[in-house]
C-alpha cells in the first residue's frame, strides 16, 4: 500500500508572527519556515506504517513556492521514499489544495492519505475534509491512533469528552492530531541520503486545476495586548473587583 502525505511549508511554530504594516498579512521576510507540525506527525505515522510492513511506499507532496523543496527534503530525510512539489508563487487556499491533492490521488492511487488536521498558518482545518468529499473516500479526522487491518483502517479520534473509534474502508483520508506520535529527528546520514531521493517538480497547470483565490483578506491585525494584572489584598476586594469588571454577579 502506498501512503500519500501532504506537507505544508509554514512559519516555524517558535516564531512570533509580525503583521505587515499595511495589515495585508503576516510578514514572512527573513522568517524561519518549517514543516507544519501536524504534517511532521503525518510523515512519522506513514513511516511507522512502512516500518511495520503495512505500507510499501511513502510519497510526500507539497504545494507552494520553490523553497517548499526544503520541506519535502525534510520528509525524505525522515524516511519518505519520494516527493512531489507542485510549484506556485500564489497563495493557495484549502479548496485548491484539495483539488490538486485529488488529482495526485488519481495519479498515484494511494491506499491512505495522511494529512495534518490543520496548517498552523491559516488554521483552516479544511483540506482533509474537502479532499475526502472530492474523492468520495471516507475520512477519519483528528486521529490519535491509526491501525490498518486488511482493507480497513481503524482511526481513534479525539472528540469532546473522550475518544471515538471509527472503521473506514481503504482508500481513506486521515488527519492527524497532536497525540498520534512524536515525530523523529532526521539523522545526518539520512539528511545526506535524502538529497538523492526523487523529487518531481510539477505545476498546478499540469493537473488542470484553477488555483485562483476565492477569498479576499480584508485585514490582519495583531492580537490585543494583554493588560497588566493587579494585586488585591483580600478575597472581598477580589470579589468587588470582579463585580466592578462585570465578571461576577
Ligand atoms: P488546512 O486545511 O489549511 O488547515 O491544512 C490541513 C492540512 O492540509 C495540512 O496539515 C497539510 O497536511 C495539508 N495542506 C494544506 N495546505 C497544503 C499545501 N500547500 N501543501 C501541502 N499540503 C497542504
Folded structure, characterized:
This protein is of the alpha/beta class and about 250 residues long. It has six helices and eleven strands. The strands form two sheets. It has a nine-stranded mixed sheet, with helices on both faces. It has a two-stranded antiparallel ribbon with strand order 2-3. A hairpin with a 2-residue loop joins strand 8 and strand 9. The radius of gyration is 21 Å and the shape is globular. The model has no long low-confidence stretch (mean pLDDT about 95). It binds adenosine monophosphate.
Q: Measured on Cα atoms, how large is the radius of gyration?
A: 21 Å
Q: Give, in order, the helices and strands.
A: EEEHEHEHEHEEEEHEH
Spans where pLDDT lies below 50 across 5 or more residues: none
Which cofactors or ions or other ligands sit in this model? adenosine monophosphate
Structural class comes to: alpha/beta
**% residues in beta strands:** 25-35%
Shape: globular
Mean pLDDT across the residues is 95
Query: How far is the first residue's CA from the last residue's CA?
Result: 60 Å
Major sheet size, sense and barrel closure: 9 strands, mixed
Report helical residue fraction: 25-40%
Tell me the total number of β-strands.
11
Placed side by side, the strands forming the largest sheet appear as 9-8-7-10-6-1-4-5-11
SS field, number of helical segments: 6
Amino acid at each position: 500500500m502506498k501512503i500519500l502525505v501532504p506537507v505544508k511549508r509554514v512559519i516555524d511554530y517558535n516564531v512570533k508572527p509580525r503583521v505587515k504594516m499595511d495589515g495585508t498579512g503576516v510578514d514572512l521576510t527573513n522568517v524561519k519556515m518549517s514543516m507544519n507540525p501536524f504534517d511532521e506527525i503525518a510523515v512519522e505515522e506513514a513511516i511507522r506504517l512502512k516500518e511495520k510492513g503495512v505500507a510499501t511506499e511513502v510519497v510526500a507532496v507539497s504545494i507552494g513556492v520553490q523553497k517548499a523543496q526544503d520541506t519535502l527534503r525534510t520528509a525524505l530525510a525522515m524516511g519518505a521514499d519520494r516527493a512531489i512539489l507542485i510549484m506556485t508563487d500564489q497563495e493557495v487556499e484549502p479548496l485548491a489544495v484539495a483539488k490538486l491533492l485529488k488529482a495526485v490521488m488519481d495519479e498515484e492511487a494511494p491506499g491512505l492519505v495522511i494529512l495534518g488536521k490543520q496548517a498552523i498558518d491559516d488554521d483552516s482545518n479544511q483540506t482533509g475534509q474537502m479532499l475526502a468529499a472530492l474523492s468520495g473516500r471516507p475520512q477519519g479526522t483528528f486521529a490519535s491512533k491509526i491501525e490498518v487491518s486488511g482493507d480497513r483502517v481503524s482511526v481513534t479520534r479525539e472528540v469532546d469528552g473522550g475518544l471515538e473509534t471509527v472503521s473506514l474502508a481503504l482508500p481513506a483520508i486521515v488527519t492527524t492530531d497532536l497525540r498520534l506520535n512524536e515525530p523523529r529527528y532526521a539523522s545526518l546520514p539520512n539528511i545526506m541520503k535524502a538529497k538523492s531521493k526523487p523529487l518531481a517538480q510539477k505545476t498546478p497547470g499540469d493537473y488542470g486545476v484553477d488555483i485562483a483565490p476565492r477569498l479576499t483578506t480584508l485585514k490582519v491585525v495583531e492580537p490585543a495586548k494583554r493588560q497588566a494584572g493587579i494585586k488585591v489584598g483580600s478575597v472581598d476586594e477580589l470579589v468587588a473587583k470582579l463585580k466592578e469588571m462585570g465578571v461576577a454577579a
